[in-house]
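Hi R.,

As promised on Friday, here is the backbone we talked about, encoded as structure tokens. Could you run it through your design pipeline when you get a chance and send me back a sequence?
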């Protein structure tokens, strides 16, 4: 049978179909070329606790070197502008750090492992454990409050669209540990915001944590790094850091009158909240300044007293279970505030700086097994 020639109309339709298919393929290729790492990152998000707690592995470069090269950021708005242009490809986000009434401490296990404990106390805060592995830095895991990125009871990173803002998470860590065994936690101080003004590159509270986790192996390296930059407090507040490493070393870094103050274990403390003693290796911090002098404003002296007395009684030696028990003993029970918001300990985490593990309990659920994560896995 003689084959009929294709009509002109069919040729046109076929041509349109082919052209559309080519455009679709080109668009898909372009999207993956532009957002390939981001899509892989979003695809890694997993809900691991109903409180909730999510995990996410960041794939690719989140641009911390470019952040420093372009001058850093002297406030949250500048940080957001960088993140929006570099990571979010123009998609708008918000980053906000409200009052953080938290607790940290370091100790050593009977086997000699350095551990670091952290309570994060705030209003309802969905959490995210973020894995990062920069090409020229240390891999780490860090905890992020997704509430700072606009998430809450009416919005969670459950699908591609709702997850987009989570791409900013590497720039909002509040505590974490890296593969070299360096751990960091940040705590609020109720005093004037830190706003150093020299000719150094500007960084903010959370970018400082990101940089320490990415590039520092020891407490000394972390202190040296902080000294290279002008610190500007996020959310127009003031904070101090506790930093510890796998050797058992620990410091607390505070900013007073625009100057950085570094306290080692045994340095005197204020408010009569257990004066320092020579030879100790442990420290704790809550929400008041520890630098000797007329700086003892803030809160959390009661929690600090419990932490230091427990550590002193144990000579700084605790198992990981005992460390979690200590966090529970200074955790914040549920409080209903005047505006109806619920304030409590949002997460408790014990980091092992030698085994490179983290044990996390969300929402004060101390009677349930902790979520365990390892940097090695």
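Update: got your reply. Pasting your designed sequence below so it's all in one thread:
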């Amino acid at each position: 049978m003689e084959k009929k020639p294709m009509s002109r109309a069919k040729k046109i339709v076929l041509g349109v179909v082919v052209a559309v298919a080519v455009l679709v393929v080109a668009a898909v290729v372009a999207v993956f070329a532009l957002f390939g790492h981001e899509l892989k990152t979003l695809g890694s998000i997993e809900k691991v606790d109903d409180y909730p707690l999510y995990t996410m592995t960041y794939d690719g470069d989140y641009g911390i070197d470019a952040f420093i090269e372009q001058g850093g950021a002297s406030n949250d708005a500048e940080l957001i502008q960088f993140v929006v242009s570099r990571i979010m490809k123009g998609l708008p986000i918000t980053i906000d750090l409200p009052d953080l009434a938290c607790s940290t401490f370091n100790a050593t296990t009977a086997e000699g492992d350095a551990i670091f404990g952290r309570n994060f106390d705030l209003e309802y805060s969905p959490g995210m454990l973020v894995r990062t592995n920069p090409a020229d830095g240390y891999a780490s895991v860090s905890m992020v409050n997704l509430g700072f990125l606009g998430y809450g009871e009416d919005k969670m990173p459950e699908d591609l669209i709702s997850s987009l803002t989570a791409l900013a998470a590497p720039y909002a860590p509040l505590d974490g540990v890296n593969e070299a065994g360096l751990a960091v936690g940040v705590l609020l101080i109720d005093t004037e915001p830190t706003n150093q003004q020299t000719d150094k590159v500007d960084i903010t509270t959370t970018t400082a944590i990101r940089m320490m986790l990415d590039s520092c192996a020891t407490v000394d390296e972390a202190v040296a790094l902080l000294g290279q930059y002008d610190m500007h407090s996020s959310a127009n507040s003031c904070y101090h850091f506790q930093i510890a490493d796998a050797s058992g070393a620990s410091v607390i870094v505070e900013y007073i009158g625009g100057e950085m103050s570094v306290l080692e274990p045994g340095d005197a403390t204020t408010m009569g909240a257990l004066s320092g003693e020579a030879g100790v290796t442990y420290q704790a911090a809550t929400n008041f300044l520890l630098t000797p002098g007329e700086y003892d404003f803030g809160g959390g002296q009661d929690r600090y007293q419990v932490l230091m007395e427990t550590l002193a009684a144990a000579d700084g030696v605790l198992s990981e279970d005992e460390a979690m028990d200590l966090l529970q003993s200074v955790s914040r029970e549920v409080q209903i505030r005047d505006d109806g918001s619920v304030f409590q300990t949002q997460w408790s985490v014990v980091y092992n700086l030698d085994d490179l593990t983290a044990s996390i309990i969300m929402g004060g659920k101390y009677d349930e097994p902790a979520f365990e994560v390892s940097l090695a896995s």
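One thing I noticed while checking it: DSSP finds eight helices and 20 strands in the chain.

Thanks again,
M.
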